[in-house]
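Q: Convert this sequence to structure tokens.
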Amino acid sequence: MSRTQRLAKKTVFVQALNSTLTLTWLMLMPIEYVILALGFIVCFHMSWNIGANDVANSMAPAVGAKAITLRQAVIIAGILVIIGATFIGSHVTDTIRGGIVSPHVLEDSRIAMIGALSALMSASLWISFATWKSMPISTTHSIVGSMVGFGIATGGFGVINWGGLSAVVGSWIISPVFSMAIAFIMFKTIVKFVLSRYDPFSDALRFSPVFIGLAVFVVVMSFLFKTPMGTAMAVGEITALLVASVIGVAGGFGGRNLLRRHFSKPGASRDPEMVFRMIQIGTSCYVALALGANDVANAIGPLALIYSLARAGEVAAQVPVPYYLLLYGGVGIAIGIAMGGAKVIRTVGERITILTNTRGYAVTFAAATTVLLASKLGLPVSTSHAAVGGVMGIGLARGMESVNFGIVSKIMLYWVLTVPVAAITSMIIFKFLELIL
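A:
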């Protein structure tokens, strides 16, 4: 027997021994802690998949427009996602995502723990499959569909809030159409006031306070208006508007001064696209930060429910989420971005339509504005849907022939399949886990 064969045989033996010891350890643990241990493992897998799929929401327009490289996008998004998840992510989570399932399904703590684990597994598997196919989907809708499947498996169709679920279905139309319209209008505005002028570079600098200021206004409002951060700082609606407006104006003119200083250097480009390149990188960073703050709940929410039930045996309507759980989810998302984010980034950034820096700015601004307005109106929107809608809006602004409707129809098919596939998978997993646990 060769040395390589002996090493291979030894490796197989060690792996088998580790698996046996792990299985024995799990069998000796109380069932609640077995579920909790599995919850941590599946939560990390879910976080990984969120990073691999949702990073396209923030970085695809910038990569597609060549504002930054794919490697730079991965590094920037990974850092900002961890910061957003840990320091801005909500420290309470709804036990039943979005009020889709009746709360009485949580009365049996063990069933609730198995259900939350099933939902995590189901959502993670579907997002993983979609990412493998390079398709951007809503991770929020994936976990909603999984919770629907858990609810049906435990209490039948009567425990489902069909009104809330119909709002989710309605968001398949609301998010992309709204973002498409904003991106279309924004790009046409840029063409009219900048790109079609005699000296587009000078006009790009001249109107840069407007474009920068609008982006800064949306960013500040996203963090202050009806958010946990705004509540903690005791910021009301009027105050949030005033603060965002002041910071937006200051940011707009301050940004123009920085741009003028940068482009006044010897040999600096006089391409108007380069002006918007700077702005676009900033808006992309904001969406990445928001990804960590908002979407970490899709992975950590079910784990927080399992964690609370394992420790206390009961759970309230909302569950506190410790910092280390948010950090755990944020790190998982960042690793997913680094290891698997490239495929979906290329689909959104390159395969729907050709992007430039001005177009990329319009896309990220439209996606951020759509999520801000719709979420504050109580509409369940998806950042993925908004980002794709924004790219479509840019394509339509250039003419119908510039949009790859083949890839768009395929993306929409995956959107429609998300809730039913996640629900059915969750039901199957729940019944299996209920049988063995």
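The first strand starts at residue 92 and ends at 94.
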